[in-house]
């Protein structure tokens, strides 16, 4: 099946560029659309200053750009689409800059956090935007050396430089699967737990031992004797790694790394999502991987628990009005300010994550505010299971009976049981996946029909 696409339009004042003058590199990133803390802005200006670890920062920015341009999995019989990659997203949270990208195959998310210690300059605003990562700029960035200064501007003072402006307009097709995945990955990250932490020397040994093939079967990375080893046997102590080649973007950063931390979404013999956090000098590079190369985040369905909840949608409106691009969202403070319970705040944040309006940081163990510069309404409305469930309700296919419900679909009646452990269904989809990939359309239909808010607590 071919995923429907929307056109993402970029309008840049000029291409991003790296200019080297007297041995110092000047990186000017052009911005296109997005939001500031006050309102939508055509060309936000977020930062002007030096990056304290220039060679490291250049390598990290190139890693984020590489993920945006890579399809780590190509279905059999399908030629890899040769499309211009969507440009990375940058968020200014007032004390740090976060650069994000998502792979074309929907299975890898990358984020580079330039933390306060790495920024020597003025934070000129907060918000989120796209930034131009063109090929000449990437080539020049690859030549930045450790002895150079690296000056960074995210956005430009267009009042001063209007006479130099040359508007660059481009359109990029964005598949709905890509957009769903970008939203879904935040909830996958929030559902992980820390698994292990090793020094950079052990991380480099792990990378030397990783298989280079792109097979679907996961391997498990297991702590052993102060280091790490690989096994093909599922083990609760290990972190599943489906498609070891998808860790490659971390490789060029290992020489700068202090530690490698791994987080996992739980033990599942079939594999699970994992988060790989490389601690750098005053910075982090984080990769979030789907359970398998052929299993993109777009099909995971965690967001559906929240999107089907009318209560979560109402709470999300309330909570979103209180967000101000915080680097770490304080759930308890929001609960007090919004006069709702912390659990309702967490569910509202799940809804906002599904709309691309918050991200998740495993290092902080918290959500952070950002607004994807895409159509949020389309992000919420594009889930096939949710559309099918709404159709079942509209057709009168749901019959409620206490803690059970009958849902007539596809010529059969499916029984949905509602228990304190969560909802269950008798359909083949539920038998195959259980709740590991979100609710089936029948469970969703019952949830919509009762206007309830069940689902797993994150």
From TrEMBL:
Domain SWIM-type: 414-451
Alphabetical keyword list: Metal-binding, Zinc, Zinc-finger
UniProt name for this protein: SWIM zinc finger family protein
